[in-house]
Design brief:
788 residues, 49% helix
Length: 788
Amino acid sequence: MVLHLDDYRELLDELDPHIRDTLEASFSEASRVMSPTGLHNFLEATRGLASLGRGQDLVITFIQDMPAVVKEVGEEIIKDAASAALKLSSMVSGEIITLVFSSLPTAARRLGDLELLRQYLTLLHSLSAKAPRGLRPMLSHIDQLLSQLTLGGLRRWAMWGAQAYARDYEQLTKYFSLESADAKKVLQAERRGTLFVDSQRKLNFYLRALWGRGFFLRPTAGDYESREGLRPFIENLVIHVPDAFDDMGEITGMDQYRAVAAHAAAHLAYTTSPLSAEQLNPVQMYLIGLFEDARVEYCAIQKFPGLKKLWRPFHRRPEVIEADAERDPTLVLLERLALALLDEEVQENDPIIKPVIDEFRERIVDEYKNNQLSWDLGVTLYNHLLNGQVSIPALRVLEQIAIPYRDDNRFIWEFTENIWADDYEQVAGIPHQKRRTVSVMEMVNEVDNELAGDDAQEIWTLETELYTYEDEGLPGQGTTWNQIYGKDKAPVPFHYQEWDYQVQLYRPDWVTVLERRQERADPKLIDQILVDYKQIAASLRKLIDMLQPRGIVRERHVEDGDELDINAAVRAMTDLRMGFTPDPRVNIRYHRKERDLSVLVLMDLSESTNEILPNTDRPVIQLTREATTLLGWAIEGIGDPFAIHGFSSDGRHDVQYVRFKDFDQPFDDEAKSRLAGMKGALSTRMGAAMRHAASYLKRQPTQRKLLLLITDGEPADIDVRDPQYLRHDTKKAVEELMSEGITTYCLTLDPNADQYVSRVFGANHYTVVDNVQRLPEKLPALFMGLTR
């Protein structure tokens, strides 16, 4: 099934033109992360929100932000988000619901799990009933809050403020804005040591390094109501761990995550079949689980001996266990048992547990792969406890045993309906489409198949173009099936942060840059520019010759050099014998004249470049094309690596980026045809485009890097009302690039640029071109001056 936006033409006609344009711009990114069913739900949710009557911003924010949320937690969240909006609509304003949607990408990234994000939406709904005035300031600081708190901590922090200031609206606003002392105090009290979201990537690499395979980790909000947290567990072959760990003395939170993840991964690696739970009571199952934990840890330690050092500190020393008089005697006995099973150096003399410890150590050498060993020893220990007349506590007491890194062992039992026979990757949600290169005849036989779609099990590729049956021309000529039915590959989204000067924080992954394919035109248009500007080209030729690298240059008459200058040495000896003071500069020094510079020319291709300015006869984009052509011709003559890119924007989720020429491409007819086809449209989100351009510059091996920006106006976009917002973000981007060794220079055609450009780019890093017609002359000369 393939879903196209045209299938919802009726829906598009119902929407406001601004919402419709936003949906069309965001549909490409949505189609990359959503299945056809997810896209259907996404479009239906858009229809429902549009009919809610709470303004355009709410619908536009939902359209723009939902693909990023789906990418983090899955497309099931779409219905939950739309349902949450409908519930909130009767309690808060549309602006608050818009802020809720704006916070979802951050919450999804920080929480990292679908169920946790659903609980986050439930929390917002609960808070809207108890303290609706606190929602706006809290959502404005949600990134700061979730970077320090778990979901449970956020809930306790919010509910404390809602109850403490239920009738004091001024203090309530200060609390949720993090301005009051109480807010900071409670926030500090609720902070956790190590958050899972900050450790997940490291844990994935850690497990892959050990077992050479991928494991799937998900967080759980175990401390949602209490600080204790749920025990780790394995379900559907996914390891679920608490969303935060506090340090335990010398054991850091990261060490706890490693221990938990390694133990659970050992279960997945070495528990190959479930144990039968028939005719077993809960205590027997718990005791069998103790031996199964010891068995898989033994298997893991045999392969990776260092894991013993990782797990050993979580088991208390025997003298510490015995000194804990308040604990149940049976728990003390079982803790000693678990320690002895892990560490063979620990000796036990207790008549109840010593026989099973000895039997475990004897049988594990030959039966380490068979979990029936755990079943046998667990039942045997249960009988020993009964025969020893030891009181066996209830299961809830047994679960208080102080071994915090072990999971609850639901994975090892047959009645938990684990999917043992299913493919591991399929359980984790990885699509199973396969790519296969086929022959021409196979492709011909299937080219008219209308049943294949995005959910096909195989994707066939043909290495050469396939021409239609009617073509009778030579190979390489005529019409291909690609040209008739093919479609452009959906652009890969690049997400960048953006600086919010009002809160003095970055908005993470706020802007999406999409690289578009540039339409081509006749490259002769570019060649004609060089003919039209013969005089400027002739003057540039002299500058090019001066700037070309000269290789090794020899400098004579120096005191310290690389070799002796024979002629100068003879003259010095002659002067010395004649009684004159000789010239000590008798050496030759060699200099390597090389240029170590990469240049990226970034052109503003917004709608304003189509305007014909006063006292000119050509649009700005034509002058920009001519200037860039002359500059490209000059840089190619010098030999510096350079690239020519352009950008425009249609909101923060559609910053369109075009690469006319890359560093590794020659300035040939292909690059010239792209330059000839350049057009101006949309707006100017400058900071995101500069950050994306910098990603290409940073890959260059040269020491000096120059980003040369050509623009005819200030930063602006359709979804930004504050004129200072994008100026501050662009300034921050300039500072970021400078810290990474990239020099930024702006050539602006805006006659009013003096009001802001110096604050954005710096006093000596911009030029205002007062006569736009002189741009083709100014740009190459400016480059020569910058790089001389």
